[in-house]
Design a protein that fits this description.
10 helices, mainly alpha, single chain, about 55% helix
């Protein structure tokens, strides 16, 4: 797929208008009347729940790569946390992520970094890329799960319900910071893994793509910035492989393992243990 055919892809108007609305409303949080340290604290807490426990630990390392196992009730909790990140439902997200690994930085990769930073960061989402219709073969293990289907169908109403709860607890500042600012922050943190960690940083392993290890992306994504490590060893629950490559998600998984909730934890050099 060339840059020309990329430009000829039709726009995904629903996603485009949704993103414009979320980013615009988030800007209102910075008005003096909406500033609240408590609301910022709520946003940071929800960033951790949805970005770390949900997307990074749950949707990515647990479900997409099955790098460890947990009891089904706990898996569903992590899937629910990820659903509140409002990055579509878990079935589509997991399917697209597995599709990315199958074709990383090739013409079929929906956020191929060869098409530029903007495209890999978020431009691809605003187009009707073929990958959105090609994920079926990547989701056979979850496509019929009732809880996954519930989250897939109702990820937006669940976000609205969370907004109602936050409004009841702290009014509009809680809604603006806890929903809109937090969504924008988690969105761009997640997207940096698709864009920045295929452009900036260093490469420890010679993989067949442009993945890199980028420390500052690792900071804001709870360890996902060690992306070259991940592409080299997709099965590994630990992405920060050197002692100084801090990986907060791995520390969480390790804690779950110590208390007996995480099992069959796959690591580099011990994938079959």
């Amino acid at each position: 797929m060339t840059a020309v055919t990329t430009e000829r892809l039709s726009r995904d108007w629903v996603t485009l208008l949704f993103m414009i609305a979320v980013h615009s409303i988030a800007a209102l949080a910075f008005l003096p009347s909406n500033f609240s340290w408590t609301a910022i604290g709520v946003a940071l807490l929800l960033h951790w729940f949805t970005g770390c426990l949900g997307i990074t630990l749950g949707w990515h390392r647990l479900v997409s790569h099955r790098s460890f196992t947990v009891p089904k009730w706990l898996e569903y909790f992590f899937v629910f946390c990820g659903t509140l990140a409002c990055q579509h439902g878990p079935i589509m997200w997991v399917g697209l992520h597995r599709h990315h690994h199958a074709y990383s930085d090739q013409s079929l990769d929906h956020h191929d970094s060869n098409k530029g930073f903007w495209w890999s960061h978020m431009g691809w989402m605003l187009r009707d890329v073929p990958a959105k219709d090609e994920v079926t073969r990547f989701i056979r293990d979850i496509k019929d799960d009732p809880f996954y289907l519930f989250c897939e169908r109702f990820f937006l109403p669940l976000q609205i319900a969370l907004g109602v709860v936050l409004y009841a607890l702290g009014g509009w500042p809680f809604v603006l910071w806890g929903i809109f600012v937090r969504l924008v922050a988690v969105y761009h943190c997640t997207w940096l893994v698709n864009s920045a960690t295929h452009k900036f940083g260093y490469r420890t392993f010679e993989t067949d793509d442009k993945s890199t290890n980028c420390w500052w992306v690792a900071v804001v994504t709870y360890g996902e910035g060690w992306h070259n490590n991940h592409h080299a060893y997709q099965y590994s629950a630990r992405h920060g492989l050197k002692w100084w490559e801090i990986d907060m998600t791995w520390l969480t998984i390790r804690f779950l393992e110590l208390v007996g909730l995480a099992k069959k934890v796959k690591l580099v050099g011990a994938a079959d243990s």
